[in-house]
Fold:
Amino acid sequence: MNHPAVLSSRVRLARNYEDLPFDAHRPGVAETCVSRTANALALSGEDRGFALLTMASLGEDRRDALVESRMISRELAASPDSAVLLQEDDRLSVMMGEEDHLRIQAITDGLSLDEAAARCFAVEDALSRHVRFAFDDQLGYLTACPTDTGTGMRASLLMHLPMLAHHKQMGSVSSIAAKVGLNARGYYGEGNEALGDIYQISNQITLGRTEAEVIATVTALGEQLSETEAELRRNALAERRTATEDKIFRAWGILMNARLLPLKEFYSLWSALRLGAVLGLVPVSPESLDSLPVEVQDAHLRAYNEKPLTGEDLDAARAARVQSVIRAAKR
Amino acid sequence: MNHPAVLSSRVRLARNYEDLPFDAHRPGVAETCVSRTANALALSGEDRGFALLTMASLGEDRRDALVESRMISRELAASPDSAVLLQEDDRLSVMMGEEDHLRIQAITDGLSLDEAAARCFAVEDALSRHVRFAFDDQLGYLTACPTDTGTGMRASLLMHLPMLAHHKQMGSVSSIAAKVGLNARGYYGEGNEALGDIYQISNQITLGRTEAEVIATVTALGEQLSETEAELRRNALAERRTATEDKIFRAWGILMNARLLPLKEFYSLWSALRLGAVLGLVPVSPESLDSLPVEVQDAHLRAYNEKPLTGEDLDAARAARVQSVIRAAKR
Structure:
């Protein structure tokens, strides 16, 4: 079944070396993590397609762009001794010298946590042939932060839920999620913001549940939200068609014509446009719009334009980028 | 010289019959005005193209549409015994049984008060061959309201002044106008509003100045405002090109895509779009947009759609009408 509300799936595994202190900021720890992991992957023969990027060697814009793409964490970007093994096209990364010694992460399209998990475990398996991870028979994998101990796994979905947000249902969604050990929160913005009506659904609990159970629980909530969202969409078209179309086509008109597009306004218009794409009202597919929230962020715009853009120039570059992506996507 | 800020010119002459009480609401007065005037115009042989419309015979929507087009006054529309002699295509009308016995009015395109005045005087001349108007050698033409006595003439320009409005200059424009006996005020909206940045410039004074002097004074202020507006436009393009274009193209995008367009929002977007047309930024001429502020009013929309539209249906019809007019105007 198709779940257009699910933008992407992500799994990440926290792993630590049993013989190293659980503190990557201690001198030498991060460097050892990096060299040991890179060697182990090379020895396993599974290192094809991976690039080894040390934070110290990357410019600030490149690091920021990797953070925007979620290929590395903000914490990793800020640690000069750390590094990432990266298959950028496949959105597969091994962060080394973050809070944990290793964070293996895979992002996949749509609702596909099984696939994302399989990619992470393939990397973990390859490494395990040559290194030993801290593991306790009672607790499972040991981690820097106790909230990750157990499976060390975080499975999350990025979801676009404009109708649930419109009907102010995300508060109760959060409560329901918490009851089954999951967390639902706005992904972009500060505090309680959920810019673009984009939410992240993820597991809170890593202890006492198998990886398969966690993936099944997150997937089930994702499916349920997706179906509720679809029902609200159908109701909106049946009961408020003109007002719904008005919002969507106004967003289309502004996105295709503005010369300056602040990031916050972009999110709001993008949300309406993607809703229109899911409803088949505008001549682009939802999938063709899914990369935009990342593409229009500052470091991505600087990289795309090969210019150190700031202020109004960023807003101008954002408008131009949106228009070129949408024009290219037009059926 | 071209003055794109001037939307239209209007002249109206107040005239009264010397043998009738100056009160059209007194029984029989309006009827006498109507029959006498219609007969006089017929006798003069100048009645070709004129339709005689009595208010009692017109439906409310038709009366409202004539008020929206400024072919009749709201007061005339509310007086069942009154009537209008109308050359609708030429925007020439003779209101009978309004505050004054007669109000002869001509509207012409752009800055052309001389032409509008000539049309009014042609009608007045034709009537004068067969009727006598109340005239005093000292005061001039006598009128129901003393503020019209003298020439009985009101000359006005409808102007689109978005840059003067943007720079909050209309307060001082008003003060300057008052010093030369003119009045400058927002044309659409309540109180101090000037929806669409549309202003009316007209003479306050009808006594002690010839018709030619009044027309010259109003024309001179119109030219001056037009030139100031043009200078501010040039500055906006030179100094804030991206922000100026952003405002204009957003207006284009919303006007061409909205499914619901409230009247107030229409005015604001129309103003930005027409500025873009004057600046040559959008592929339509300013003139092609000049009828829109009238075409999108309620009675016009009802007449165009041949439906008794209300509420959201009016906003939907307005959006559709705007889009069809702009599409037809596209170069």
User: Anything to note?
Assistant: Strands of chain B lie at 6-15, 51-54, 83-87, 92-96, 102-109, 135-136, 140-141, 153-160, 182-186, 198-203. The radius of gyration of chain B is 21 Å.
